[in-house]
Every structure is written in C-alpha cells, then in structure tokens.
Amino acid sequence: MVENERLRQEMRRCEAELQELRAKPAAPCAGCEHSQESAQLRDRLSQLQLEVAENKSMLSELNLEVQQKTNRLAEVELRLKDCLAEKAQEEERLSRRLRDSHETIASLRAQSPPIKYVIRTVEVESPKTKQALNESQARNQHLQEQVAMQRQVLKEMEQQLQSSHQLTTQLRAQIAMYEAELERAHGQMLEEMQCLEEDKNRAIEEAFARAQVEMKAVHENLAGVRTNLLTLQPALRTLTNDYNGLKRQVRGFPLLLQEALKSVKAEIGQAIEEVNSNNQELLRKYRRELQLRKKCHNELVRLKGEAPALNWFAQEENVPIRNIRVIARVRPITKEDGEGPEATNAVTFDPDDDSIIHLLHKGKPVSFELDKVFSPRASQQDVFQEVQALITSCIDGYNVCIFAYGQTGAGKTYTMEGTPENPGINQRALQLLFTEVQEKASDWEYTITVSAAEIYNEALRDLLGQEPQEKLEIRLCPDGSGQLYVPGLTEFQVQSVEDINKVFEFGHTNRTTEFTNLNEHSSRSHALLIVTVRGVDCSTGLRTTGKLNLVDLAGSERVGKSGAEGSRLREAQHINKSLSALGDVIAALRSRQGHVPFRNSKLTYLLQDSLSGDSKTLMVVQVSPVEKNTSETLYSLKFAERVRSVELGPGSRRAELGSWSSQEHLEWESACQTPQPSARAHSAPGSGTTSRPGSMRRRLQPSA
Ligand code: ADP
Ligand code: MG
User: Fold this and answer.
1) Which residues line ligand 1 (CB under 6 A)?
2) 451 burial class (0-12, 13-18, 19+ CB within 10 angstroms)?
3) More confident position, 397 or 126
4) From the CA of 424, which ligand is nearest?
5) How far is the centre of ligand 2, averaged over its atoms, from the C-alpha of 523 (Å)?
6) The 3-state secondary structure of 311-379, one letter per residue
7) 250-291: per-residue pLDDT in tens?
8) How sure is the predictor about 303, in pLDDT bands with cuts at 50, 70 and 90?
9) Helix, strand or coil for residue 657?
10) Could you tell me if residue 541 is left (phi over 0), alpha (psi between -120 and 50 degrees) or otherwise beta?
11) In 3-state terms, what secondary structure has residue 16?
C-alpha cells in the first residue's frame, strides 16, 4: 500500500509537471529541455521496471516458500497415517492375544483334574501372562496418548496450512493488484511520454519557424550592415590614422612631461637652495649683529661710567642704560640631586640667543631674558671673562658689586670661591687686579687691600679679625661727607696670589672654629669679600679709589617651604629680610625714588656706596637645573628679571684731586680707633712676606 501510495504521488507529480510544461510557452530552446525531461522520464521508467522485477522475484520467493510448506504438510500427514495404521495393527494383535489367552484359560478350566498339573502350570504361567497383559495395557495407554498428541499436532498443522493458504491467496491478490497498478502506471507514463514527445516536436517546429523568421530578419539586417560597412570603411580608415597619430603622441607625452618636471624641479631646488643659503647668511649676519649690539651696549655701559662726556649722548638718544647686569649660571646635575623624576633636567637654552633661558615649571614652559645665560658646560674662566671688565674698572676708581644669588646648593660658593683646582671669581679677580696694576706700575702706584666680613642674623662680623664673634657697626664718617665705614673691620694689604690664599685660609679657619657646621652656616649668612684698590698717579698726584665687593649671598629659599622653627626660623627671617631689602633698594633705584631704603638691612647699608648711582653691579643668579627645584628656580629667575630692569644714574668716576675718599677715611678711622687690628691690617696673617708695618700710616699722614 505504501508503495502504491508513493506511485500515486509520483504520478500526480508527473501530471503536475506535464501541466506546467503545457502551460509554459515554447521557448526557442525547448528541444533541449524536452529531451532532458524525456531522458529523466525514461530513467524513471527503467527504475519502475526494475522495481517491478524486484517485486516479481519477491513473489516467486513467496510461492516457493508456500510450496515448501505444503510439501512438509503432506509429509506430516503421511507420517500421521503410518502411525495410525501401526497403532491399529498393534491394537489388533494385542486384542487377538488377549482373546487367545482368555480361550486358553477357559479351555484349561474345562479340562479335568489330571490336568491339574497343567492348571498349576497355567497358574504358574498366568501371573506372567497377567504381567504381559498389564504391560500391553500400559503400552496401549501410552500409544493412545501418543495418538492423541499426534492428532493435536495434526490439527495445528492443518490450521497452519490453512493460514498459509490464506496468506498466499492474500499475497497473490496483492501481487495481482500491484501488477495491475504497475500496468496502469506504465500505460499512463507511456501516454505522458507520448504527449511530451508531441509537445517537444511541436515546440521544435515552432522554434524552427520562429528561428527561420528571425534568420530572415537577420539576413536583411546583415545586408543593411554590409552596405553601411562599405560606406563606413573610408571613415574608419581616416579615424585609424588619426588614432595612430594620437597614440604616438601619447606615447611620447610621459617622457616630455618627465623632462619638463625634471627641469622645473631642478629650478625649484636651485631657488630653494639659494633662498636657504640667503637665509643662512642672513641668520648668521643677524646673530653677528646681535652679538655686536650686545657688545656695543656693554661698551656703552662701560663708557658711560668712564667718560661722562658720553652721557648726554646716551640720554639724548634715549638709550636705556643699565649698570646693573644680571647673568644666570646653571650648575650641572650632580650626584647629590639623586635619581628619579625629581632629578630630571627642567632647564633648556636657546641655541641662537645666549641671553634666553627656558624653564619647564609644572609642565608649563616659562622663558626669561637676562644679559647672559651660562649653561652647565660653562667653565669658571668663561664666567670670569664676563665679569672681567667690571673688575678692571675698579682700578679706574669705580665701585663694583658682584652678588651670587640663588637657593642653597645652586652653586653660589662654587662661582665665587670655586675649588682649589678651579678657583672662582674671588681669586681670579684679585689675580687680574695684580696683573693690571703691574702693567700700570710705570705711571701709577697702587695698593690693594682685602677685608672679609659676614652678615649673620643681621649681625656684621669681621672674618679676618682676632675676635670674629664681635659684632661690628656701620657708621657715618664724621667728616660730613656722608660716607660709611666700619670701625674695627680688618684690612690686609695683598700683593700676590699667595697673600690672597693666606687671607682666605685665615678667614676660613676663623669661620670653621666659630661654627661647627660651616656648610650649613655659610648657606644662612652673607659672605663678603671687600677689595679696595687705591691708586696715585705719579705725575699728577691724582688719587683714585675703587671698591670691589664680592658677595656670596645666603640661600634664597623661602621659609614657608622648609617649615622651619626656632633658631632656623629666625635665621630664615633675617635672610628674607635682607634679600627683600636688597630687592627694595634695587626697585627704589630703578624708579629713581628720592629715598632709597639702604638702611633696612645691614647688607644694603654696608653696600650703599657700591649700589648707588655711580657704581656697577652684577648679579649672578645661580640656578639648579633639576625638576624638584623648579619652584625656587622660577622665584630666582623672576627676581633676576626684576633686578635687570633697574636703571641707575650715569656712572661717574670717583676721582678727586688731592682729597681723601670716604674709604680712605674709613681706613684712617679704623687705623686710629682700633690700634690692634690695624697693626694686623698691614700684614698678611702668618706670612710676614707682605708685612710693611706703618706703611699705610706713613702714606696717609701727608693727606691727613
Ligand atoms: P651654594 O653655595 O649655592 O649653596 P655650592 O656652590 O656649594 O652651592 O654648590 C653645590 C654643589 O654643586 C657643590 O658640590 C659644588 O661643587 C657643585 N657645583 C655648583 N656649581 C657647579 C659647577 N658649575 N660645576 C660643577 N659643580 C658645581
Ligand atoms: Mg654656599
């Protein structure tokens, strides 16, 4: 039935396909499709035939099985008949024997007593017979049971046979049905194939007819195109010629373009090179001019001090004249700076302008312009060269002040004092003075004296005196000149580098014995080296006095930052007070105020004559380059920029014919009032080599 259903479905599908095919308009290539379809259908047919053959073989197998079963049944029946016959025979034999026995018994009973013996024999034999009879009966029973059993089997077999017969008839009916179905399907398929074949033929014919019509049209078109072609050929020929010509041109074009580009490139390159070299040249010239301008400016400042005749020129031209110069010196990064991000460099320089310094503070770049900036690579000699002119002007009678400003550890002492192998400004200045003085020895007689003092907690102490702990006072000269002097400040006359070294050593020893931690102490006090150069022109008697103040200021770091207490706080307050007084003095000078608050600190009071109008000042702002110090560096550089913009009055030479300068007066006073230090003032300590006792007094006497 399943197979039947499947076949029916197949047939329905075939019909649907057929319908579809019929509904479809005949395409020009219908022939192909139909042949494909018919091939498919043929395949399908052969498949179905195969299936029919399979079904037939299955049927014959079933028939064979039925035959075998029938044969077996016949055999069983035969065996059963045999058994029945055997049993009947046996029964008959036994009944016959029984009957014989009964007859024998009866005949024996009817016999006379002489036959007693026989009876007895019979009686003896009788039990045997009885036994045999019993046995026969038992066997009979057994055989009867067997017969019943066999009958049962036979019955079952008959039933089986019957059901087999039924199955066979059923199967036969089914096969017949299948065959009929198959026959019908086959017939239908043949019909369909016939139809399809017809359709196909029809489609082919139609397509052929259509193709013929189309062919005709194409032929007609072709004829038209041919005539067109004939007319177009000459035009094509000219076009081809044109095209070939253009092709040739296009082929040559990249070459042409390349050449043009090359020449243009070369021209542009040359032009750029020319512009570059022009630029370089201009830049070089500009830098040279800048340097020249700076030099001229410096020279102007110097001339302004030396030649009053030039002052009017400078003022008329309205040139801002500064006789306070500010330079910065950046020390190298040292081991003491430690490691890590805090010890990274935060300071950069301008390669084209040595007066610019850039600081990276909290991620923000800040730039400052000063008179000159020394990078960590600058040597002591480089720095000295910058201050040399100032120092020599001291010989000519100018007062000069050189300050080293900056936070502790920024290199102030290194710049001022230096190391024994690489001395700083102090020693180099004195050396220079000696050489200069010697060069002028034919016309001038010079004496150079040095004093060393320290200002700590607003107390002034003499570092070369016998009692360094004694506080000194600054006094006005009693001569009414308005000049200041320090009674009791020791002054040594020096003539050679050895003398200076001895003086420095003495000062150092004094300081070391006084303070256990000199490093700490020196960073909290201002150290002053005061060099006085006195000259007399041998021919004219003109006297000049110049004073060179070399000041290693106390550390400029702010108190709030260190959170100091007690004595440290007091120290810091004094330092702040004196440094801000220095700033105030400079600000007052800058704004040309009538009153300049020199008296606000010991430092400014002491340096009054070296800071006011006719003197020259240089401030070296020491800078630490590391990241952790940028706040202090910023503060220092701001201070420096403020100081730099101060303008002082025109420099004037402190030269007086035949009169004493305030400094000489100071010296005189000191010599008279404090006999003990003055005695020492004429000899370098412990040397004896420069000892010229009484020479100063002798020389002072005529004037006095
Ligand atoms: P300050 O006097 O400002 O406290 P110092 O002069 O004592 O600072 O310098 C601190 C440290 O840095 C010293 O060890 C010093 O030798 C070193 N130093 C400072 N400036 C320089 C420099 N230009 N070259 C080499 N070392 C320097
Ligand atoms: Mg120092």
Assistant:
1) 331-332, 334, 406, 408-414, 523, 622
2) buried
3) 397
4) 1
5) 5
6) HHHHHHCCCCCCCEEEEEEECCCCHHHCCCHHHCECEEEECCEEEEEEEEECCEEEEEECCEEECCCCC
7) 988 989 999 999 999 999 999 999 999 999 888 888 877 877
8) low
9) strand
10) left
11) helix
- For residue 320, the model assigns a pLDDT of 38
SS (H, E, C) 496-511: CHHHHHHHHHHHHHHH
Residue 8's closest CA among 232, 213, 181?
181
Contact 7/190 with Cβ under 8 angstroms? Answer: no
Q: What is the DSSP letter of 626?
A: B
Ligand 2 center from residue 584 Cα (angstroms): 23
The predicted pLDDT at position 616 comes to 87
Q: Choose the residue to mutate in 374, 375, 414 for probing ligand 1, maximizing ligand atoms within 8 Å of C-beta.
A: 414
Rounded Cα distance, 31 and 18, in Å: 15
Distance 408 CA to ligand 1 centre (A): 9
Residue 418 DSSP code: B
**What is the residue type of 370?**
L
Q: How many residues does the chain have?
A: 704
Helix (H) or strand (E) holding 396: none
DSSP 532-596: EEEEEETTT-EEEEEEEEEEEPPP---HHHHT--HHHHHHHHHHHHHHHHHHHHHHHHHTT-S--
More confident of the two residues 299 and 133: 133
> Max Cα separation, the chain?
226
Mean pLDDT, the chain, integer:
81
CB distance 269 to 277 below 8 Å: no
User: Residue 350 phi/psi, 5° resolution?
Assistant: -95, 120
Instruction: Return the ligand number nearest the Cα of 623.
Output: 1
Interhelix angle 380-395/116-306, nearest 10 degrees = 20
Burial 121-130 (b: 16+ CB within 10 A, else e): ebeeebeebe
Q: Whose CA is nearest to atom 9 of ligand 1?
A: 411
Coil, strand or helix at 460: strand
**Listed residue (691, 629, 592, 3) closest to 333, CA to CA:** 629
Instruction: Give dist(CA 293, CA 306) in Å, integer.
Output: 19
At residue 422, the 3 state secondary structure works out as coil
- Hey, what amino acid is at 112? S
> Of 55, 46, 57, which Cα lies nearest the Cα of 178?
55
Task: Report how far ligand 2's centroid is from the alpha carbon of 605 (Å).
Answer: 22
Task: Give the phi and the psi of residue 574 in degrees, each rounded to 5.
Answer: -65, -40
Q: State the Cα–Cα distance between residues 27 and 692, nearest whole angstrom.
A: 142
Q: How many angstroms does the Cα of residue 412 sit away from the middle of ligand 1?
A: 7
d(CA 510, CA 173): 147
- CA-angle at 524, arms to 472 and 634, nearest 5°: 130
Which residue has a Cα nearest atom 12 of ligand 1?
Answer: 411
Q: In this predicted structure, what is the pLDDT of residue 120?
A: 65
Instruction: Please give the backbone phi and psi of residue 529, each rounded to the nearest 5 degrees, phi first.
Output: -115, 115
Ion ligand 2, residues whose Cβ is below 5 A away: 412-413
